[in-house]
Design goal:
2 copies of one chain form a homodimer. Chain A is of the alpha+beta class. Chain A is built from 17 helices and 17 strands. In chain A, a hairpin with a 3-residue loop joins strand 15 and strand 16 (541-549). The two termini of chain A are 46 Å apart. Strand 9 (258-260) of chain A pairs antiparallel with strand 9 (258-260) of chain B.
């Protein structure tokens, strides 16, 4: 062990703000891997990602650490901790192999004298992809207490070139004092040295960020967030905090979550009464009504696709109701028994005295600020109470929305393109290590893909052209045949952009058929198409949906009527056309999908810190 | 009028990004008020804030505009638009005087020949406090169409020194072409040239940002938002988007909103029954069912043509059946003398299969990211379903939360102080005009107050010291007597900090009695106090609540038990102590209160774009 006198202590390394430690990025994040910091004394903190025991040859113990032999326990893939029973079975199910060695119980290669071992830890503090190699001699701390994956340590020591020459680490920390050990309950800790499947990690959102993958995803999310705010700051946009609780339905189509304080009271009422009369035949019909109702709800979500099915389901439901009514009448004639039914919900008792929802989109609200302040944006959570039909949707997702007064479709498309290029360039610059790490999963380096987004000029096609191009495809049979009037589905997008079959760069599809877009999008002069656009990128599909919104009162009013929307709800929105109307355009960017695109992961739940999906909202 | 040849056209002024106009800030926001831009030709857009008519003396009409006489119609306080009936009565109630002149009907001062008048408009586009004076000759556009407050115009013209010398404007725009006019329905438009009470404006959140006050508030909010993100970026914090929907109760005390999809069906019933608790008779509904059936049959014949209509008719019919069934049941229940009671809420049918809430605070979730990545923060909406007991609380408020691993109480207090200084300095730099404008309402200039926040050192006192100091107050009788163990209330804070009676600068009160703070705050060695702190500032009161959180499993576990909290809900939170625990601290900043503090307004609803308060969530 090098004595303190031998170490040349230079100026201390910059401390991490608000904690008396040095961020590991300051050490191993530099281009030389921290080599120039050799000799400096630092305090660091972090979590053990993996560990080995190194037994120093007898003559080396206590001396300079230049020729120690690292003895790795077990094979490369073996975890240092006891594997949890449920993870063990999961791995078995997944076909993974398991050898269970515990380092303190492992056998050292023969030939090396059994000397007091040294713990060699790979430690991360989340500041960068690279870990710092930390060497703790057993004379300083018992190896078995600090070696398990997930242990938190705060240690003081001196940076030095590794005791054993190897390529991975330019520098390691030779510990002189252990300041803190946050132990791990190895029987219960879900993480290990082994890379775990993302599906498995979803059950542990509170531990996920300790994995390299989710840590990288988080840093990339952060970079995009910072880039977004910087873009808007540079371009004179004002940030507006829009409400999550709302009475306005932005689209008139999506299923919404209700916000209420009523359910609590009803639970109390339930305690008082338990009565429930059973009526077999009528109940059966009623149950079938519920099923039919569900089917109708499901079909409505895809009503654009299959109106025939929806019509037949609705007809079916009506018939069931009729039958139930008949049965009810018959029964009434026979009996005069009691019946317990659900009271109509009286929203005047609710917190806001009327029904409120979680917002689906903030664009309508944003318009009112644009029509006063010019360029505005928002960045917040948006909600849909729908069972997702793809891995790109959960109930709560973050969106960036912007709205610009005195602007038209062309301006919004230009802004969307500039925005994507800006944030991707930012991510490349700030997160190159993370992107390189995640590229190991991908078919090409993610950086190349982002770089091509930055340098390419987005192609622009009309919806009509996009349909034509897809209709001419001969070598591929689509599940859903593409037709004029049919929305482009994921499979169409995948074909057109995914494999670069048709388009080599991100594409902006614009001028959609009016039936395919919400009521507020501006009607084009042809009376059939509207000034909407989607930005579609390879793999992730549609990242941005934008439009020039209808500024003409009479046209907007007609569109609201045509779609049988509750006009009263939109009076305030119509007001913006009644008084001082102006052309304006904007877009919504699905932020989580942007992160999905840049990380090349598949399921959006893996890039959202605490995802909320159908049937699942833990924590 | 100056001919085009006479005007020296210099290089065009920088265009506003994504719209073919020049932002007014570019013109009137410069230190010389835009004087150096004289002679430049620009397109601008904005909303008319007020207007006058100027009649040019006969000999000047059509000539150079240097000696025109501005003729102001009516007195200084007279609005240019017809005042709404309800506003008229409001103003009467408030004691305001009203004279109703309409410029086009107003009489010009005698002695000036009645020549075609010129409209002189004060136009704002929200980019800055100052308005641009815009002069539109009647030969170009009818004055009466563009003069009403709230009219949106896009015009092209040449910047010139004002036709009439006056102090207010260094430059004005002489319009050559009117590109767009978004008229105002004067009978219905709520805003006017007169400054309106903030209470009145709350009913028009979609128009409020067109007032100078709310526009300034929005720009200051924006500056604080940008400053916050910049502070965190500079100090190595990662942004984490925390969920709004949650099952974890951060404090165990606050009333929460429930998130559900269970009330959906009841909503549909409401729509059919034409709402407002009007009881529809069973007969009426049965009759409507017949009608609806007929309609469906008719539509089926031409179903190819209009599927949408058929779907909506069928849905309508189903709903009617459902209502009929419900009414039938209710009638039956009533007849037989039984009470109609509410059915038990079965959350397994709910979207997430269990009960979920809107989050009260994100700090617990944030901890899991801090205990992996170091310094993290969030910025999002938080919710309390409580009737507010002050003007500083509404149901939905935005908070900035941060959490730092490897840090202690002292670090969080330092960070809180640095943060406030940084964002206040930023606001002073970026929003000086807005702060000056808002200072007109305040007792001192707001900038001085913010400046003293930036330059002062925050005083630190323990809770015990704060109580002692307040107990020694003799000249003031508090409504609630201060005692050891009693939380400091607004009146105590107001006394101590509001009038600078005791403390001259922001104060950090720390080490509260444990009963006064949530269960997760770290217990001090005395066993009676906890490592919590509040940052209290003059007028706004507590802006920040922070703490070092309990990292010791056994202590935390005991605290959960002591407070009889549902332990199961906190298992994941306890996990962070089971595995790799570490000291950590952080705080929550009530963002809306920071804006309230900096704008010197009184009611938080006036600084939130769309406030959600008890009984009120419009739009």
């Amino acid at each position: 062990m090098a004595s303190e006198q031998q170490v040349v202590v230079k100026n201390p390394v910059t401390l991490c703000k608000y904690s008396k430690r040095v961020s590991l990025k300051t050490i191993v994040g530099s281009s030389d891997g921290g080599l120039e910091l050799a000799g400096k004394r630092v305090v660091i903190g972090g979590w053990v990602k993996s560990s080995n025991e190194a037994a120093l040859p007898a003559q080396e113990v206590g001396g300079g650490g230049s020729a120690a032999a690292v003895v790795t326990v077990g094979s490369k893939d073996v975890g240092c901790v006891e594997i949890l029973p449920f993870f063990r079975s999961l791995m078995k199910a997944l076909g993974g192999s398991q050898q269970q060695h515990h380092p303190s119980r492992g056998k050292l290669d023969s030939g090396v004298p059994k000397m007091p071992p040294t713990a060699v830890l790979q430690v991360s503090d989340g500041s960068c992809v690279a870990t710092l190699q930390v060497r703790v001699d057993s004379s300083i701390w018992r190896p078995s207490e600090i070696m398990p994956t997930g242990t938190c340590i705060v240690v003081k020591g001196t940076l030095q070139q590794p005791a054993v020459k190897e390529n991975k680490h330019a520098i390691e920390l030779k510990v002189e004092k252990v300041i803190h050990v946050g132990a791990v309950d190895q029987d219960k800790y879900p993480l290990s040295k082994i890379r775990l499947p993302l599906e498995f990690l979803r059950d542990f959102p509170h531990f996920r960020p300790r994995t390299t993958t989710v840590a990288s995803v988080t840093r990339i999310r952060n970079a995009f967030t910072q880039a977004a705010h910087t873009f808007f700051m540079n371009n004179g946009f004002l940030y507006v905090q829009l409400p999550v609780i709302t009475t306005t339905d932005c689209e008139g189509l999506s299923e919404k979550f209700q916000v209420t304080t009523l359910l609590r009271k009803e639970l109390k009422k339930e305690v008082i009464s338990t009565g429930d009369s059973v009526r077999v035949s009528l109940e059966t019909v009623k149950a079938s009504i519920e099923d039919k109702n569900k089917l109708v709800e499901e079909l409505k979500i895809k009503s654009e696709i299959n109106k025939e099915k929806l019509i037949s389901a609705l007809q079916d439901l009506c018939n069931a109701y009729e039958l139930a009514a008949q049965l009810e009448a018959r029964e009434k004639a026979n009996k005069s028994g009691t019946l317990v039914i659900t009271e109509r919900v009286d929203f005047s008792d609710d917190f806001f005295s009327h029904q409120t929802y979680l917002t689906v989109s903030g664009r309508l609200h944003l318009e009112s600020y644009a029509c006063a302040l010019g360029n505005v944006y928002s960045f917040g959570p948006r909600f849909r109470a729908e069972k997702p039909d793809s891995k790109k949707q959960v109930a709560e997702m973050w969106m960036i929305e912007l709205e610009m007064a005195f602007s038209q479709l062309e301006d919004a498309m230009k802004c969307a393109e500039d925005f994507l290029k800006f944030v991707c360039e930012w991510a490349i610059e700030k997160c190159s290590d993370d992107l390189k790490f995640l590229s190991k999963r991908a078919d090409q380096t993610i950086i190349d893909r982002l770089q091509s987004m930055v340098s390419s000029s987005f192609e622009r096609v009309t919806y009509a052209e996009a349909v034509d191009v897809l209709k001419q495809v001969k070598d591929k049979k689509f599940e859903k045949q593409i037709e004029w009037g049919v929305p482009l589905s994921e499979e169409h997008e995948r074909y057109a952009y995914g494999g670069d079959e048709i388009y080599k760069s991100p594409v902006i599809i614009h001028n959609y058929l009016k039936e395919l877009k919400p009521f507020y999008v501006r009607l084009n002069d042809d009376g059939r198409t509207v000034a909407a656009f989607d930005v579609v990128v390879p793999k992730a599909g549609t990242l941005i949906r934008g439009s020039q919104n209808e500024e003409r009162f009479s046209v907007l009013n007609t569109r609201i009527k045509e779609q049988s929307l509750p006009k009263k709800q939109y009076e305030w929105y119509l007001d913006l056309r009644r008084h001082g109307t102006i052309t304006h355009s904007g877009f919504s960017l699905m932020f989580d999908l942007l992160v999905l695109y840049a990380t090349d992961l598949i399921d959006v739940r893996d890039v959202i810190p605490f995802p909320r999906s159908h049937g699942k909202a833990n924590n």
